[in-house]
Specification:
α3 packs antiparallel against α10, α7 runs antiparallel to α8 and α8 packs across α10. The protein is built from eleven helices and seven strands. The protein is globular. With 350 residues, the protein is an alpha+beta fold.
Length: 350
């Protein structure tokens, strides 16, 4: 969407473009921001993509490049946040930061796109684990939160510090996805509060649980992306045409239209296998790279897309690309095609 000077002020996507554009001009329930956007729209440009996935990725790319004034998300990667537990033998602190210091021994999670969600999750972890200390300087005196039952008393030293470090180990395991006991404790407290008709407390723990689940999901996204895997995707465009998309980590290496409305899929299998070999062989032996705040949006799009029912895909192992091991790749492509054809819209092959 462009203003009277030709400046791009908003980038969006739609499956049904007519309905989406019409909704901007015919609805009376818009927020003030959208109403202001509509007043400034003087022209539209349209880019047609073959698949919804390509639309998501293109939208993300354009927003980051152009930074339209009415797009809020994906514009400012500097605003992404991290959780850090610093490597301190005596008193490790659980902190939120925009720019973590990558020091040896530090535990770092992120980047996360919503600071408010991160703050809610950390607040919930500290409160439910009773490490919400209001005396961060730890000057050997009990803090106010200790009297409120929110701090185990590590601010006064002694045995509470040992207990505190045990809790921090549980927090690390929670954020790493290896121990959900803290989350289970919070779910039990939420249930008990609801049974006692304390709905305010139950709602508070519900929000904490939702925020922590968001963090754990994001860590799965980042872990998946950092593996820098070769991914071959098939998605139906219509009853005769499919799209082959080849990804390396967060990068789209190629996308090709292929006809599949044929009883014999041998030729199609050969074409897909050849494309995989030609594309991924040039990407062999690249070391996995850490996902930065600039790439988290693409990682989320790809992860969500692969977990949806919109496509069929395989992870292409690098040893399948060796000249003496093509049988593994042939088998995988054959299985991918059979899964795709069973899930694709009805066509003459069936």
């Amino acid at each position: 969407m462009k203003d009277g000077l030709g400046h791009i002020i908003y980038v969006g996507k739609a499956k049904q473009l007519k309905r989406r554009v019409k909704s901007y001009f015919h609805s009376k329930s818009h927020s003030p921001k959208v109403k202001q956007l509509v007043r400034n729209i003087k022209d539209l440009d349209i880019i047609l993509t073959d698949t919804e996935f390509e639309a998501f990725m293109l939208e993300c790319k354009l927003i980051k490049e152009i930074k339209p004034m009415y797009n809020r998300k994906m514009k400012n990667p500097q605003a992404y946040t991290y959780i850090v537990i610093e490597a301190d033998d005596k008193m490790r602190s659980l902190e939120i930061t925009y720019d973590p210091a990558d020091q040896k021994g530090n535990h770092i999670w992120g980047p996360y796109t919503s600071r408010s969600t991160v703050e809610r999750a950390v607040q919930g972890i500290k409160e439910s684990s009773k490490i919400l200390c209001s005396n961060p300087s730890f000057k050997n005196s009990l803090c106010l939160n200790h009297s409120l039952g929110l701090c185990i008393g590590m601010c006064a030293g002694g045995e509470a510090i040992v207990q505190y470090n045990t809790i921090i180990d549980r927090v690390i395991a929670l954020l790493n996805g290896t121990d959900s006991s803290i989350l289970e404790d919070m779910e039990q407290r939420m249930t008990e509060a609801a049974q006692n008709y304390d709905f305010e407390t139950a709602a508070k723990y519900r929000d904490y649980i939702g925020a922590i689940s968001f963090l754990i999901h994001k860590e799965k996204v980042i872990e998946f992306a950092e593996e820098n895997q070769n991914i071959a995707i098939l998605e139906a465009m219509n009853e005769q045409t499919l799209k082959l998309i080849l990804l390396k980590g967060n990068r789209i290496l190629s996308h090709t239209k292929l006809e599949y409305d044929q009883p014999d899929i041998t030729h199609l299998q050969a074409v897909i296998t050849s494309a995989i070999m030609d594309t991924f062989c040039g990407e062999l032996n690249q070391a996995p790279a850490a996902i930065t705040r600039h790439e988290i949006d693409e990682a989320q799009i790809i992860y969500s897309y692969l977990k949806s029912s919109s496509c069929s895909y395989i992870i292409v192992q690098e040893d399948w690309l060796a000249t003496d091991n093509h049988s593994r790749l042939d088998t995988a492509v054959d299985e991918l095609l059979r899964i795709f054809l069973n899930a694709a819209p009805s066509h003459s092959y069936n």
